[in-house]
Design brief:
The protein is of the alpha+beta class. The chain is built from seven helices and 13 strands. The protein folds into two domains: 125 residues, no CATH class; 146 residues, 2-Layer Sandwich (Tetrahydropterin Synthase, Chain A). Helices cover 39% and strands 29% of the residues. The strands form three sheets. It has a five-stranded antiparallel β-sheet with strand order 6-5-8-2-12. Strands 3-1-4-7 form a four-stranded mixed β-sheet, with no helix packed on it. Strands 9, 10, 11 and 13 form a four-stranded antiparallel β-sheet that branches.
């Protein structure tokens, strides 16, 4: 009797799963990065008994602007759609038609008629730009300021704060590396500490590269826009392949170099050790003094 009961239950359950579903997602706010899809079922539907873990071949997935949809089968991403509109799901892991039907029945019988060994999940991913993420250096970033031409070797530090925005560019990579399999929603605040740490790493690397490239520390605030763009590109090179996230914009609110005035004075003093530079400086100072005296006498 047990096998007959399992056969009957398997046929009943698999027949219920032949219905196609409609999945959708309400508007995603800027703090929600990934959420489980909603299945459209009304009280008048004949599809109210279907297993929520099954997505039938040919089901409809509605995708809005700024969204992407992921379909998982047995925990593996099998379908991704980033184009807005109506998307028809075709399960590449499951044969359709009569053969697929009887394989489902056979699998159900093997597990007692009720358990379905093949499961699905549908997630919606927010692909809009997420702005307004503030950052600041928790401690000054140390820099060694060496200038072989002027025989300077100093230690200084840089402190800064600012704001950046990011966007999910590869939903499948984001799911695999960041959110994983969740029941509810994956929110932005769970990601920011990781992005902030990577940002500070990229900032330190770029500051070192800029200083070694010859930029004077006192000029760093004047180059804040170019520096921000370089840090953004360096950070995206870290986050996009690993997390499926690109940094869209980055701007500094403040950028301060410790002892910048002292460093500038030392560099000016070292420059005057060159005889030609010293002579030119004295000639310029004398000319300025004579012009000032002439204007005062007039």
């Amino acid at each position: 009797m047990g096998i007959l009961s399992a056969v009957g239950a398997s046929l009943k359950n698999v027949l219920q799963e032949q219905w196609r579903e409609v999945f959708f997602c309400d508007a995603l706010d800027e703090n929600t990065l990934l959420v489980r899809a909603q299945k459209q079922i009304s009280a008048r539907s004949g599809n109210t008994q279907q297993d929520d873990r099954i997505v039938s071949d040919g089901s409809v997935l509605f995708v809005a602007d700024g969204q992407a949809v992921l379909v998982l089968s047995q925990g593996k991403v099998v379908d991704v759609c980033t184009a807005p509109g109506k998307h028809i799901f075709h399960d590449p892991t499951h044969p359709g038609g009569i053969s697929g039907f009887f394989r489902d029945v056979s699998d159900r019988i093997a597990f007692g008629g009720d358990v379905q060994p093949r499961t699905h999940r549908v997630y919606y991913v927010n692909t809009k730009e997420c702005p307004g993420n503030r950052f600041q250096t928790p401690a000054p970033i140390p820099l060694n300021l060496g200038d072989a031409r002027l025989a300077l070797d100093l230690d200084a530090s840089v402190s800064c704060d600012g704001v950046y925005s990011f966007r999910i560019t590869d939903p499948a990579v984001f799911y695999k590396a960041v959110s994983g399999n969740i029941e509810g929603a994956y929110t932005r605040n769970r990601l920011l500490s990781t992005l902030d740490s990577l940002l500070l790493t990229a900032l330190q690397d770029e500051l070192i590269a800029q200083v070694r490239g010859g930029i004077r520390p006192s000029a760093l605030p004047e180059c804040a826009v170019a520096l921000a763009e370089a840090v953004r590109d360096r950070l995206t090179a870290l986050t996009e392949p690993q997390y499926g996230i690109a940094i869209i914009s980055l701007a500094f609110g403040s950028l301060q170099v410790s002892d910048a005035a002292m460093i500038a004075a030392l560099q000016a003093h070292a420059t005057l050790q060159d005889p030609e530079m010293r002579t030119a400086h004295l000639a310029g100072a004398a000319a300025d003094a004579m012009q000032s005296a002439a204007e005062t006498g007039a």
